[in-house]
Each structure stands twice: as structure tokens, then as C-alpha cells.
Amino acid sequence: MIKKFIKGHISKFLNLWQQELELKKEQANPIDSMLRNYLKENKALGSNDRKLFTDNVYKLVRHKVYLDTISPKPLSWEGRLDTIYTEKFATQRKNMSLLPHVRASCPKDLFDVLCDSFGEEKAIEICMAQNLRAPLTVRVNPIKISREELIQKWRDVNKFAIKPTEFSPYGITFTTDKNENLYELPEFKRGYFEIQDEASQLAAFKVKCQIGDHVLDYCAGAGGKSLAFAPYLKGTGQIYLHDTRDYILQEAKKRFNKAGIQNVQFHTQESLNNNKNKLVKKFDWVVCDVPCTGTGTLRRNPDLKYKFSRNRLKYFVDLQASVFKEALPFVKPKTGKIVYSTCSLLQEENIFQITKFCKEFNLEVVDGKHFQTTPGKDVEMDGFFCAVLQFKN
Ligand SMILES: C[S@@+](CC[C@H](N)C(=O)[O-])C[C@H]1O[C@@H](n2cnc3c(N)ncnc32)[C@H](O)[C@@H]1O
Q1: What would be an example GO MF term here (predicted)?
Q2: Ligand 1 center to residue 293 CA distance, Å?
Q3: CATH hierarchy code of domain 199-391
Q4: What percent of the chain has pLDDT over 70?
Q5: pLDDT recorded at residue 123
Q6: Any residues with Cβ below 6 Å from ligand 1, and which?
Q7: How distant, in Å, are the alpha carbons of 199, 225, 233 from that of 238?
Q8: What are phi and psi of 373, to 5 degrees?
Q9: 292 is a catalytic site residue
Q10: Is 243 annotated as a binding residue?
């Protein structure tokens, strides 16, 4: 039974979130930042209460479409919350008279485009998987410690329930849903690891840069991908991090310092433009980890599914094409490679884009086929897409 006091907070918070979404639509603040602010302002919620509060907020947001159909009317957050803890919540999933997008708890527009990409059966499986809690996964920084050493320390001293990731050689996944505060660990402060989903790690490792290479991370954000592939360079060559948001590069700078990586430089849009003549055709690798609908990360960001619209999809498709076109001149002719990646599941942002780029710019996909992960029954990773392209010679 959830205490009345916590139920009150859950309702209050979700009413605020709903208002925010109605008012600002796709510009609405992300739910995780709204949650952080709410918890800061409501110190009366103790640490156990916070976990219960947060877990239930996420559950309600994930299952809202389904709950709106099966909960008592008039709808309220309290009513939806009570419904989660009834038998009906499980049994109605099998009610085939409910529309598929309702059973899968996915807004209709998004469900339809997922069906276009995967067919209905797979789309339902993906949505169901995206309604589960995301696993907590970290990437070990091999410059500071090996995965084996960190696993041993965490198992023996911290008593964490963890396992090595199956595909990434540097990942560790937590196997319980206990909220470990990893940011407070000395190993985090010393740069031994970063929190990063396994699929994102695998996409980053597609940048197989070698000693002495020059790499331009064109949409670097806070540097998540670059931090993962930087150890391949063994301190040689140079990574250029670029983003249109100056403040996020400051964040990246701090993370690189902590990770002990020095062969990097940071470029705002202005500084890259000022140096453009020197930098075009210079890079062995250009990484285009473009802005996208984020439909592969709905377990972490379930609020994104309510921001989705076909217009928003078109906005991202156009933006991705223009970012790719901006980044391409920096690739070294003949040998240079450009890596295009998204955390989207949609063909419009992925395979359709690279097919178009190949035709328009005389490129071909190299290093095997493109790489794609889709959350599903046995796939614990986020949805990611990545392809390595090179000029046809
Ligand atoms: C998916 S995020 C990058 C995440 C980052 N690579 C990581 O692994 O943590 C996309 C980034 O593209 C940036 N961006 C948006 N428009 C851009 C543009 N025209 N040129 C370069 N970066 C852009 C955004 O500010 C955002 O940080």
C-alpha cells in the first residue's frame, strides 16, 4: 500500500507535468528535470519515499495510454495509480478487443510509425519492452581501471548485484532495481566509469579510430561517445568536440579532465567556423550523433512519447540532413569515414537517411552493415542506430 501522503505528491506532480505538456507541447521540460526540481522543493519526502514516488511517477507515465482506457472515469492520477495495483492491470493486456496501441500504451501516431518500421507484432513487443524500467549500465574507463578490477571491487566491497554486459567489453549492468547513487562513489569522482547504456557504448565503438587519428565529434553534447572511443587513440592524435550549445561543451570538458584524456579540443560553432579552412578534409573520422526523436530511449524518457508527432519527426529528419551536410566537408577524402548515429528506432531517421546520403553524396556503407538495436523481449539495451560511411573511390 502506498501512503496517502506519497499518493498526494504523485498526483500533484503529474498534474504539473500534464499542464506543462499541454501548455508547451514538444518544448515541455523533460520529466526527469521536473522531478529533480520537485524533489528539491519537497524535502519532506525521505529517501525511501522518494524511490516510491519516482518509480510510480514513471510507471504512470509509461502506462498512461493503457491506463486511460482501463481506469475508472472520470480519470484522475489517483484512480490510475490504484488501477496499477489491481488484477485488471495485468489481465486487460490480453484483452484483444482493446486497440493494439492501447494495449502497448503508446500514442497512436507513434505506434503507427513504429508499425511502418517494424510491422504491428514487433511494434507491440518494442512498446511493451519500452514500458519496463531501463537497466542501469556503466562504461568502465580502461585508462583508469579494468572492468574485471571494478567488478571485483564492487562485488566484494560494495556488495553490488552486477554483471558484465554481454556485448560491450567495457560495460557493467546492475541486476537489481535498487537505486544506487553512483555519482557519490569515489570511483565516479576519480573517472573510473561513466553511466552509459550498452547500445550507446556499442555505437561509440563503431568509431574504430587508431593511433594518430584525428576525429571530429560534430554533435558532441557532453562527450558521451567521444569518452568511449578516446582510449583507442592511446593519447595520440586529437579529438575535436563541437556542439551548437556552448554550455554543454563545458560539461564535456569536465568529464574529459576527470577521465584523464588530454588529446582533445573543444569548438563552439563560432570557433569551428573561424578555423574551417584549416579543418576541412582533415579528419580520419567525423562523428554525427544527430539530434533525433529519442524513440529508442523511451524506457528512460517515457515523456518523449507524448511529444511525438509526424511534424516533429519531419523536423528532426530535416535537421539531421542539414547537420550531416554541414559535417561532411570535414571528412578526409579517400580514407576518411563519417559515422551517422541516432537513438531513434524509426526508419525515417535511420536507414532512409543513410540511403539518401549515400545517393546524394556518393558514399557507401562500410564496416559491414549498419548497426541497430531494438529493445525487445530479450534485449536489455536502448534502441540505437549507427552506420559508417565512406566516399566511393
Ligand atoms: C544526440 S545529442 C549528442 C549526444 C552526444 N554525442 C553523446 O554521446 O553524449 C545531439 C547533439 O547535437 C547538437 N546539435 C544540434 N544541432 C546541431 C548542429 N547544427 N550542429 C552541431 N550540433 C548540433 C545538440 O546540441 C546535441 O548536443
Answers
A1: RNA binding
A2: 13
A3: 3.40.50.150
A4: 100
A5: 97
A6: 218-222, 224-225, 243-245, 248, 289, 291, 323
A7: 25, 15, 8
A8: -115, 145
A9: no
A10: yes
Residue with cell 493486456: 93
- The pLDDT of residue 46 is above 90: no
CATH 3.40.50.150 residue ranges for the chain: 199-391
- For position 377, what pLDDT does the model report? 81
Distance 249 CA to ligand 1 centre (A): 10
Residues 6 or more apart in contact with residue 196 via CB below 8 angstroms: 137, 138, 139, 171, 224, 228
Longest dimension (CA), the chain: 68
The separation between CA 90 and the C-alpha centre of its own chain, rounded to angstroms, equals 28
The question of ipTM being above 0.85 is answered as: yes
* Range(s) within the chain of domains with CATH label 3.30.70.1170: 137-196
Mutate to test the pocket of ligand 1, among 244, 285, 304, 328 (most ligand atoms within 8 A of CB): 244
198 neighbors 381 (Cβ within 8 angstroms): yes
Mutational test site, ligand 1, from 198, 218, 243, 343, max ligand atoms within 8 Å of CB: 243
Rounded distance between C-alpha atoms, residue 218 and residue 282, angstroms: 13
* pLDDT score for 308: 97
pLDDT of residue 179: 75
The DSSP secondary structure of 99-163, one letter per residue, reads -HHHHTT--HHHHHHHHHHH-HHHHHHHHHHHTSPPPPEEEE-TTT--HHHHHHHIIIII---EE
Catalytic residue among 127, 343, 358, 386: 343
Q: Residue 199 in contact with residue 382, Cβ under 8 Å?
A: yes
